[in-house]
Amino acid sequence: MKIQIYNALVNRHTGICNRYHKYCSRFGKKHKLRSYGYLIYLNISYYVFQCKYLDVPEDAQVYEEKKLLYSCSESEYANNARYKLEEYMKRIAAYDIISFDIFDTLIFRPFSEPTDIFYFVGAQLGILDFKNIRIIQEYEARQEQFHSAHHYEINFSDIWNRIEKEVGIEKTYGMMIEKKIEEKFCYANPFMLELFCSLKKMGKKIIIISDMYFSKSFLKKILEKNGYTGITDIYVSSEYGISKANGKLFELIKKEFKNSTSMVHIGDNKVSDINMAQKYGFDSLYYPNINQMAAAFRTYDMSPIIGGAYRAIVNQYLYQGLYTYSMEYEYGFIYGGLFVLGYCQFIHKYCTSHKIDKILFLSRDGDILKQVYDQIYPNENTSYVYWSRAAATKLLAQYNHYDYFRRYLYHKINQKISIQKILCSMELQGLIESLNVYIDKDSSGKKTNIILNLEDELTDKNVEALKRFLQLYFNEIIQQYKVQNKAARLYYTKELIHCKRAAAVDIGWAGSGAISLAFLVERIWNLPCEIVGIIAGTNTIHNKESDASEIFLQSGKLVSYLFSQSDNREVMKKHNPNKNYNVYWELLLSSPTKQFLGFDLDNQKVIFHFGKEETNQKGIKEIQKGILDFIKEYRKHFNDFPFMLDISGRDAYAAMLLAASHGEKYLKSIAKKFSLDIGVS
Q1: Closest by alpha carbon to 623, among 411, 247, 333, 379?
Q2: Where are any strands of DSSP class E within 377-482?
Q3: Which residues, listed in sequence order, are joined to residue 441 by a DSSP beta bridge?
Q4: Could you give the C-alpha distances from 148 to 151, 237, 246, 251, 418, in angstroms and in order?
Q5: What is the pLDDT of residue 680?
Q6: Where are the domains of the chain?
Q7: Which among 70, 163, 392, 550 could bridge 669 via Cys, Cβ 3.0 to 4.6 Å?
Q8: What pLDDT does 679 receive?
Q9: What's the pLDDT tens digit per position in 38-97?
């Protein structure tokens, strides 16, 4: 009967089961009545009030909605919510003894959940599901300790005694591996390290108080390794059988330093570090837990290991309190860093497995990509090359009339662009006089009533007339672009010398940059090199030409990282160019360099023509710096674990999915800082 009731209330719906077990894990067996109450609440909500979302586990929710900050940066918000370094110094300068918590205060680990470190221990041990095994055995060890000694404080050996019996891993070996991983990942909180060093210079007596299963000697080793030297003493719950959480550790220390008139404790837990410290005679200063503070702005719709690492890197870098960053910088750091890192790894894996001789990073999206790629893979053959939709369209005019008119005419209908401006963008100023005397005729030869004036805007009513005019002079147009074609051939002949296979890297979206270059290299210029296109993402269902590149993707002439019809289809459906999603992604890969317009020759020397540059040069540089700094931080922690660089397209896109919450308010606020001339792909 008991099993039937359990199955009916817990196991019948995965969402209820997921929530109930998470609740039990949080509160433990000490709060059975509370857990039962929660279970009844879940069932009533589902069956009585029809809360059908409870069918789905919390972790399976797609497309999180969170209210992101769009009037200030996250670091500014965080720093306004806590004391600044100078204020901490001012408040604790008068105390005789300063006490610190260790983890999440003095010491960070690059994980949004402390237990995520067990993934890496399990990987070293080769044990499936080790994280859960480790959590359960620690819990059971504490329960066992309570029954025998009436307290929950255990040491590291107690945990591994149980793991050895439960799993069969030799205890000494397992403990050695876990300690090694802990040492590897622990690093100093820059804010607290600066505070600590300043206090040492003042001659202050500093002690450490921690509720932890590790020994005093091991914690001392970690602290000293990370710059925290000259500590008076370390008090750890595992060695005393009492804790901060019950206040007894504070009581003991208070007695040991009975001659000290003033003591202050600093930590991140409001109960154990603040309330209990005050209860037992310490003053206290709260240092808000960084991961908890930033959780409102982070995505959890990611794979567990990459997601945990990503959140921690962002949170700990932006929220520790030492620095304030611009919104542009944070746009690069939060939303661009993981994407660029993952994309570069994707490029590397593809090029290695397909024996690519050279990687061409196409301007201007390839600027930051090449910077990062060369840092990670410094010995590979790469080049930043000039290419653009404008240049490609002109060079291919003779071979693809349809695309020529599509890009220069049909994409500009009803956008308040004058005919004169369109002709100038096509570099056809020489046809202006001919236009002034042009009499339009339809396909049957009859005169129309349409008169084309230079100052007229291009509309759906006169676009066909302008097209007929250009078709009339098409041979002259081709001649206009002949020199450019020759110049481009010379340029790429040099770039592709000794190459049999090359990859052209771009952001997307139809893949026209790479495909147009491949057409010219392989079919028109007859260079002995095959070109494969690598793009971040493809066109989506929201594009007018949603399947434009499909045959190239299917045949392998194009490959896509973030999404395509074959991969991450739910993201492909979410990505909406009509809501400027292309613009937001292209902004991440923006470059301070000028827009490339085309090639030319001067005495057989290739020269380049450039257009305007983005007015917010500082903002673009800030975005790039944010990307570079994120990758530097991420690699600092995980470079010895190559699998951590293997970031799926879905994970890379996850942060941007969150950024699109609430009508893209955050993304719109970022875009307003720029005036990028981003065309339709």
Answers
A1: 333
A2: 382-385
A3: 447
A4: 8, 17, 18, 23, 86
A5: 35
A6: 2-60, 74-294, 329-391+482-671, 409-480
A7: 70
A8: 40
A9: 888 998 888 887 887 787 776 555 567 888 999 999 999 999 999 999 999 999 999 999
DSSP labels for 169-219?
A: --HHHHHHHHHHHHHHH-EE-HHHHHHHHHHHHTT-EEEEEE--SS-HHHH
Beta carbons of 247 and 84 less than 8 angstroms apart: no
Position 4 scores a pLDDT of 76
Distance (Å, rounded) from C-alpha 414 to C-alpha 613? 25
Measured at the alpha carbon of residue 78, what is the angle toward residues 75 and 84, in degrees to the nearest 5? Answer: 100
* 3-state SS assignment for residue 120: helix
pTM value? Answer: 0.89
Residue type, 627: I
State the DSSP H helix or E strand holding residue 80, giving kind and residue range, or none if neither.
helix 74-80
- Tokens 């059988």, residue located: 241
DSSP classification of residue 127: -
Q: What are 295's two structure tokens?
A: 């959780």
CA separation (Å) from 269 to 272, 292, 513?
A: 6, 11, 53
As its CATH architecture, domain 74-294 has 3-Layer(aba) Sandwich (3.40)
Contact 609, 670 (CB under 8 A): no
Q: What is the pLDDT of residue 58?
A: 67
User: What does the pLDDT read at residue 443?
Assistant: 85
Q: Which of 128, 627, 619 is nearest to 368 (CA)?
A: 627
